[in-house]
Amino acid sequence: MPDRTPRDASFDAAWRVARTVDGWLTEAQARDLHRAASAVAPGRVVEIGSHLGRSTIVLASTGAAVTAIDPFPDDWRYGRPDTEQRFRDHLAAAGVEGNVDVRVATSRDVRTAWDDGVRLVYVDGKHDMWSCLDDLRWSAFLQPGDTVLVHDAFSSLGVTLALLRDQTATRRHRYVGRTGSLARFEVATPSVGDRLRVVGELPWFARNLLVKVLLRLRLRPAAALLGHRDTADPY
């Protein structure tokens, strides 16, 4: 069936730039970010985990005020000593640096001193369960009906465990759906059905874990049988 989603010229322009930046954000996911940020612009968007700026460019291109939080460590799998400078260079090349408040710090450090309003939260920080749960606390600054977007949901063990724990321990995030691994939550009390829909994503999560194992065993043809034809992990 053909894609009947209306074209958004402003997104298309932003994506032409953003897609040249290395990162793990698909065009469909970027479109979701752009749509969510456009709905609250010029309000405040908090992005947790910026890396080289692919998602930051998409968010900031809407005219939203983006607070980009990332300690830019060089001691993790994708970190380099020049990551922060490359990130800033990409923002400047995209012409959006004026819309981005860069915080070189941890999510918790920024949050504990935060005293401003927020309209949208995008979580793509550290992928262990406790860090992700801590990042989700940013939703305390949102209003009912506002959006929390979580990347690598149902494709990372730590993030998936965090979402399952959040759904059983809190009454603040209602699961709306996902685009690939990008999950969308609304600040609202979830029903039993909403919680069960999160559990219903577990077969897809199991498939993604199997794909990761196959990729590490260099069994890409087997991963392709599961519908995964990328060299990167599912995202």
- Give helix and strand order, one letter per element, not per position: HHEHEHEHEHEHEEHHH
Main β sheet profile: 7 strands, mixed
Overall structural class, as computed from helix and strand content, comes to alpha/beta
Per CATH, the architecture of the largest domain is 3-Layer(aba) Sandwich
Q: What's the total number of strands? A: 7
Order of strands, main sheet, comes to 3-2-1-4-5-7-6
How much helix, percentage-wise, in residues?
40-55%
Q: What does the average pLDDT come to?
A: 93
Distance between the termini: 23 Å
Could you please say which CATH topology of the largest domain applies here? Answer: Rossmann fold
Radius of gyration: 17 Å
Q: How many separate helices?
A: 10
Structural domain tally: 2
What does this structure look like?
This protein is 42% helix and 15% strand. It is an alpha/beta fold and 235 residues long. The protein folds into two domains: 181 residues, Vaccinia Virus protein VP39 (Rossmann fold, 3-Layer(aba) Sandwich); 35 residues. The protein is globular, with a radius of gyration of 17 Å.
List the helices and strands and how they pair.
Elements: H1 9-18, H2 27-40, E1 44-48, H3 54-60, E2 65-69, H4 83-94, E3 100-103, H5 107-112, E4 120-123, H6 129-136, E5 147-150, H7 157-169, E6 173-179, E7 182-187, H8 192-199, H9 202-216, H10 220-225
InterPro entries: SAM-dependent_MTases_sf
GO molecular function: methyltransferase activity
Protein name: Class I SAM-dependent methyltransferase
